[in-house]
Amino acid sequence: MEYSPIQVRNTNEITHGFKDFTSQHTPEHSLHNPSNYQSTHSRHSHDQESAVSDSESFSSGVSYDQFQSFNDGMTRLFEGDRVHDLIKQRLVSGLGLLGKKATVVAIHRNTYSGALQQARVQSFQITAKAMEKKCGGDANLKFGWYGGTRDEICEIMKHGFSARMIDSSCRLFGSGIYLSPDNSPVECVKKLNVGKDGLRHMMLCRVILGKAEAVHPGSDQYHPSSDEFDSGMDNLSSPKKYIVWSAHMNTHILPEYVISFRAPSNLKAYFRTPESTRTPTSPWMPFPSLISALSKFLPPTTTKLIIKYYRDHRAKKISRQELIQQVRKIIGDKLLISVIKSFRTKMLVTSSNLEQKQWFKKEPVLE
């Protein structure tokens, strides 16, 4: 059975760096026809695969024969394929310093070969069309990264996302599936576990966001706050997380590629924020006092989240700089600087009054 591609105008991934392979392999501004893709793209990948020597090895030390491929619904792409090379370049550049140490071992593409898989594509296309109508012609399609173990990714490819995957998330921004924007894979990579073969795995998915709303840290949200919205973001102007609510996780997310790569086991050194950007320019303030002051402005759930990070720092689970970075991310620099400046002003006034009292005590009394 074949499904006709649905025209989707203004696909945002085109302006985010994937124009080359979206325009090459699909009609412009449209989702591809899975059946046509399977007949043409699988044959191309098969020809490439046949040309690879059995003795060829990757720079990571994993040969083609040794690499445990994914299930039958996946087709492997190789160096020289424009899609492969563009995804690899996008991942490596998005990882910053870590990108120089990371080695992409394999990239697989979902062929949607089974009847159920094609039904998922059809559902995604129908949803995209409906969202386009709802949002005035723009379904707000993006590409997003999602990470997991090999078994988890195979499960998603076969059965879709499950409630267990929501429960295993940190739920910092509510209950849903979190994806990282295509230009920011770092947030996704940070949470990946290394497999027995030394590899990490991520999916590159198409995501229907519709009209997104800002979700604040510590939120217990699990659906759109109103009919006006369809998804969530941690920051509308510069998002690091896309939040797809549980009710939409298997209609608004379409896994398309699996990227397997090797990277250093300890990633903390590569994700440290430069000194010039991680230290607030405002005066210093003790964290217990800061938490007490912030509790007057923040909801209890957000205050509890800050307390949790502070306890993690006290228990030496995270560094002081990591604690500062998390607090800045949760509340923003504007409120943080305002509270610290207010504290500093009170301290100066108190110090001045104390000095005056001490001066009068020390000054000899004239008789």
UniProtKB/TrEMBL annotation:
Span of domain PARP catalytic: 61-283
Listed Gene3D superfamilies: 3.90.228.10
Major place of residence: nucleus
One Pfam family in the UniProt entry: RST
Residue ranges of the region described as Disordered: 19-57
Keywords per UniProt: Developmental protein, Nucleus, Stress response
UniProt keyword rRNA-binding present: no
Domain of life: Eukaryota
InterPro entries membership: Poly(ADP-ribose)pol_cat_dom, RCD1/SRO1-5, RST
Location in the cell: Nucleus
Domain RST residue range list: 278-349
PROSITE patterns: PARP_CATALYTIC, RST
Record-given protein name: Poly [ADP-ribose] polymerase
Lineage: Eukaryota, Viridiplantae, Streptophyta, Embryophyta, Tracheophyta
